């Protein structure tokens, strides 16, 4: 391990709340999140409660605890609790919707070239099974730096691909590869005016952006709690408009399918229990929301503002170091930022699950954990940095130094 260069220590103000390795510069919160110690302890307490008396927990205690967690989460994301169910992650939420809906030969399912690969795979799966067609809107990246122009570019790219056969449009709220905040409200309104349903992959949005799902207007919205909410791994949610809930079924059909209860909807009866498993991550979501709300004076508003400003500073540091222009308006940046890399770092040839050689090099030589992301049409590699309150500017300067050193090595 090369430590001849100055190695930044994590932010002393907040890093101690997490269990992250202090010997690693962790700039990849956006991939899998990171859970504070106190939240993990809350999850473990639920696990101990289960194991002390499993039947009592499952049959008598679990449902009220789940309802409490749902109510806290629903308030945080601006949804009625009746419209919200827990799922392990946003990919499960996307699959639950897509595999519940029926499509016919010739139907078109529209998405974009910025969509998450796993969700695109699900879209292709249901299309191939039914004879429907996946249509991909090509959104440029970089975008214009003027917000109005950039939003017009996105609108044009998506709406120009809508046809009389378009049945469903799957959009990101915050795109995984390019870290763009999509202008969802206006897109959803434009599509709804044509009678087209929307499925929103909001994997990154909860805890990064203020949400009000009831006013946003998406037909279906799924998000992760383990990323920017900092809940344990295995906690996400699915929001479905009331008039569509009877159509949406969980991937696992269990007891709720024929339960004769009338105190809650079939939608919740089916999703709330899909078989014996560890549901403690769901139950700890309320603790995560409350815990981060108490770390800064103005709670979550301060957390979101802090992380966004840090991400904007990080991308400026990287763009300056790499002599790259800013790739999108500042208004489209949340707590993650993507910067196109110079072509000297190579270009991606195909979608792969393998770690990029540059990502491995940064880890092996500098102990920096940061993703190198492929983008196609045009083919570019992006570096995507996350900003959480345990990060600080020194870490991004350290990354910039490492990238500059690598460019020198390539010359």
Which terms would index this structure?
Aspartate Aminotransferase, domain 1; 40% helix; alpha/beta; three-stranded antiparallel β-sheet; 411 residues; 14 helices; seven-stranded mixed β-sheet; Aspartate Aminotransferase, domain 2; single chain
Outline:
This protein has helices spanning 29-32, 37-52, 54-77, 90-98, 117-130, 147-159, 184-192, 213-216, 266-272, 280-283, 285-293, 300-322, 357-366, 393-410, and strands at residues 25-26, 84-87, 108-112, 133-137, 166-172, 197-202, 220-224, 236-240, 336-340, 368-369, 372-375, 380-386. It is α/β, with parallel strands linked by helices and 411 residues long.
**In the CATH classification, which architecture of the largest domain applies?**
3-Layer(aba) Sandwich
What is the CA-CA span between the terminal residues? 23 Å
Low-pLDDT stretches? none
SS-derived structural category: alpha/beta
What is the CATH topology assignment of the largest domain?
A: Aspartate Aminotransferase, domain 2
Mean pLDDT score, rounded? 95
Tell me the number of structural domains: 2
The dominant shape is globular
CATH C-level name of the largest domain:
Alpha Beta
**Count of β-strands:** 12
Largest sheet: 7 strands, mixed
In terms of DSSP E residues, the strand content is 5-15%
What is the overall number of helices? 14
Helix/strand order, N-terminal first: EHHHEHEHEHEHEHEEHHHHEHEEEH
CATH superfamily of the largest domain: Type I PLP-dependent aspartate aminotransferase-like (Major domain)
| Helix residue percentage | 25-40%
Rounded to an integer in angstroms, the radius of gyration calculated over CA atoms is 22 Å
- Strands of the largest sheet, in order across it? 2-8-7-6-5-3-4
């Amino acid at each position: 391990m090369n430590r001849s260069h100055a190695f930044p220590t994590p932010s002393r103000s907040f890093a101690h709340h997490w269990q992250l390795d202090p010997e690693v510069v962790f700039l990849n919160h956006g991939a899998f999140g990171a859970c504070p110690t106190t939240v993990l302890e809350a999850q473990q307490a639920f696990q101990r409660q289960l194991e002390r008396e499993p039947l009592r927990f499952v049959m008598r205690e679990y449902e009220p605890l789940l309802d409490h967690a749902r109510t806290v989460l629903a308030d945080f994301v601006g949804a009625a609790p009746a419209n919200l169910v827990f799922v392990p992650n946003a990919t499960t939420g996307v699959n639950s919707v897509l595999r519940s809906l029926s499509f016919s030969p010739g139907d078109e399912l529209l998405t974009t070239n910025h969509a998450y690969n796993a969700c695109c795979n699900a879209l292709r799966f249901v299309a191939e099974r039914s004879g429907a067609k996946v249509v991909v809107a090509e959104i440029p990246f970089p975008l214009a730096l003027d917000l109005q122009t950039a939003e017009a570019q996105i609108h044009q790219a998506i709406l120009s691909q809508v046809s009389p056969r378009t049945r469903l449009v799957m959009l990101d709220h915050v795109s995984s590869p390019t870290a763009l905040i999509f202008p969802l409200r206006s897109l959803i309104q434009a599509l709804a005016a044509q009678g087209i349903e929307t499925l929103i992959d909001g994997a990154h949005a909860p805890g990064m952006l203020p949400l009000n799902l009831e006013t946003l207007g998406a037909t279906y919205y799924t998000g992760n709690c383990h990323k920017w909410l900092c809940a344990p791994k295995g906690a996400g949610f699915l929001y479905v408009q009331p008039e569509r809930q009877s159509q949406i079924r969980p991937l696992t059909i269990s007891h709720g399918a024929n339960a004769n209860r009338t105190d809650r909807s079939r939608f919740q009866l089916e999703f709330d229990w899909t078989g014996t498993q560890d549901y403690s991550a769901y139950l700890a979501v309320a603790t995560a929301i409350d815990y981060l709300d108490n770390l800064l004076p103005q709670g979550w508003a301060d957390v979101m503002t802090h992380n966004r400003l840090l991400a904007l500073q990080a991308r400026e540091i990287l763009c300056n170091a790499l002599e790259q222009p800013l790739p999108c308006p500042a208004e489209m940046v949340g707590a993650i930022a993507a910067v196109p890399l110079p072509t000297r770092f190579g270009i991606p040839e195909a979608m792969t699950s393998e770690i990029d050689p540059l990502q491995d090099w940064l880890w092996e030589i500098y102990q920096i954990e940061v993703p190198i992301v492929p983008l196609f049409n045009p083919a570019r590699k992006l570096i995507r940095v996350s900003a959480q309150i345990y990060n600080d500017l020194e870490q991004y300067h350290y990354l910039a130094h490492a990238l500059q050193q690598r460019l020198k090595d390539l010359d």
